[in-house]
Amino acid sequence: MFLTIGTTGTPERPATDLGFLLHKHPDKAQTFSTSHGTAHVFYPEASAERCTAALLLEVDPVALVRRGKGKGRGGAPDAALAQYVNDRPYAASSLLSVAMTTVFKSALNGVCRAMPERAEEPLPLRIEVPALPARGGAELVRKLFAPLGWTAVDAVAVPLDERFPQWGDSRYVRLVLEGELRLADALRQLYVLLPVLDDAKHYWVAPDEVDKLLRAGEGWLAGHPEQKLITSRYLSRRWGLTRQAMERLELVRLAETDDLEVESVDNAVDETTDTEEKPVPLAEQRRQAILEALRAAGASRVLDLGCGQGQLTQALLKDVRYTEIVGVDVSMRALTVAARRLKLDRMGERQAARVTLRQGALTYTDKQLKGYDAAVLSEVIEHLDLPRLPALEYAVFGSARPGTVLVTTPNVEYNVRWETLPAGHVRHGDHRFEWTRAEFGDWARRVAARHGYTVAFVPVGPEDPEVGPPTQMAVFTRGTAAGVPPEGTANGTADGTAAGTTDGSGSMDRTTTKEAKAA
User: Fold this and answer.
1) Three-state secondary structure of 307-364
2) Quick one: which of 293, 350, 302 has its CA closest to 326?
3) Three-class SS of residue 267?
4) Which residues of 164-181 are buried (b: 16+ CB within 10 A; e: fewer)?
5) pTM of the entire structure?
6) Is 424 left (phi over 0), alpha (psi -120 to 50) or beta?
7) What residue spans of 225-281 are helical by DSSP H?
């Protein structure tokens, strides 16, 4: 997948200023990791008269299919030949658009601290895309780019096979754009129109794509004659999002016609009243799912195992139904932060009696953790090395044995929907593993069967029809006949691995919190 951006210059205003505008030095070849491959930036030519920057994106088609779980381009309309033999490594698409945001982010935003005045000026540009998929052919390419200020839009259809002209042309064109435009404007046009011409995206189109479209289309999309087609295709024909985008673009057009600010046109709502529904962060959705599950279980005495900096403990403390809350974490530093968050040193006596912070490793049994209604392990298990999981399993399910256990963990299948997450990377640097829904389900069912629990699964966050939710939660409920640990697990983990023990010392009350703060 290849793209070149060239310009010309004079000794007074050398063409190599392009390097400043792109924030990439002409004398260096640089490599960047993107969500589905590796991007390379280099300069085939760099002189005062002519300078050309090249962006080469190497896409791993096998990884692309695996991350999409057999859906080709994340459910896109086609993969040219088959799942593993397709055009994705070669044809410009939304993969290249995403790579541009990674590699040329500052240039897309029109930011250049070294030469701010140059960034605001039109440049004589020549942009070439050797293989551009175009649903609608070369004519549609010209309809999309010609109204944007390009003096020349050369879109030449690529034949299916030059040796057999009777086969006709493919759906790909070789595109060359020439004209004087601001570099930021040219890059934004490409960012939007590459996936529009391909008529597909490799990632799930969420509501925030409307904002991306309007930001990239500022100054040119509102008055474009093909606005409806561009908007519909960019948003993958999700009609609700398309309608929302079209309404906002109409406001922009009206404002530009009357030379007004958009805010002065869209003034039907009192500015002091925020009626727009804002997206709820995944962490908050996770806490709400946990609280709902705890309420459904009727729990009042709760363990927050791996409590970290105390966000869930704080949410539990706000609800009077929870009469005893114990936060446990191996990190004393995290517990100190949690104590500050909860304001333990200023908390009233009755409220302070409801909460305890304790230092402890979850791979060791602790007799003081027995007898609680529920335990929560929220985003905890993935931080352990896999060989240590049996010890945690026995400490929680075999020794502590709360009535209900909630376990949340990332769904690795959903990682393909995180546009900025490099291929093959986990969501957090400290994650030792991330499981698919099937892997998590297998583990949870084995644990439930081994220790006398039943288990149900709850999706957390927006559930994608192909790859599921971003977070998966297992709700373990202890069986009525499960008063005794299964045979063979009384003195160790279910697979025979010895679990450590502790007498439960190390609780942090209000006095020790003050000492920790003083230290």
Assistant:
1) CCCCHHHHHHHCCCCCCEEEEEECCHHHHHHHHHHHCHHHCCHHHHCCEEEEECCCCE
2) 302
3) coil
4) eeeeeebbbbebbbbbeb
5) 0.53
6) left
7) 227-234, 239-257, 262-265
Distance in angstroms (rounded) separating the CA atoms of residues 106 and 374? 49
Q: Which two tokens stand for residue 386?
A: 């896999």
Dihedral angle over CA of 284, 285, 286, 287, nearest 10 = 50
pLDDT in tens, 410-465: 999 998 887 677 777 888 888 999 999 999 999 999 999 999 999 999 999 998 88
Give 60-91 as a DSSP string. -HHHHHHHTTT-TTTS-S--SS-SSSSSTTTS
Give the separation between CA 327 and CA 304, rounded to whole angstroms. Answer: 5
Amino acid in the structure at residue 478 = R
d(CA 156, CA 137): 9
Q: Which long-range contacts (CB under 8 A, 24 or more apart) does 72-77 make?
A: 73/200, 73/201, 73/202, 74/201, 74/202, 74/203, 74/204, 74/416, 74/417, 74/466, 75/466, 76/200, 76/201, 76/202, 77/199, 77/200
Q: Specify the residue for token string 């025979």.
A: 496
Joined tokens for residue 334:
């995290």
Question: Tokens 């505008």 — which residue?
Answer: 21
Residues sharing a CB contact under 8 Å with residue 507, sequence separation 6 or more, in sequence order:
356, 357, 358
Contacts of 452 (CB under 8 A, 6+ apart): 478, 479, 481, 482, 485, 486
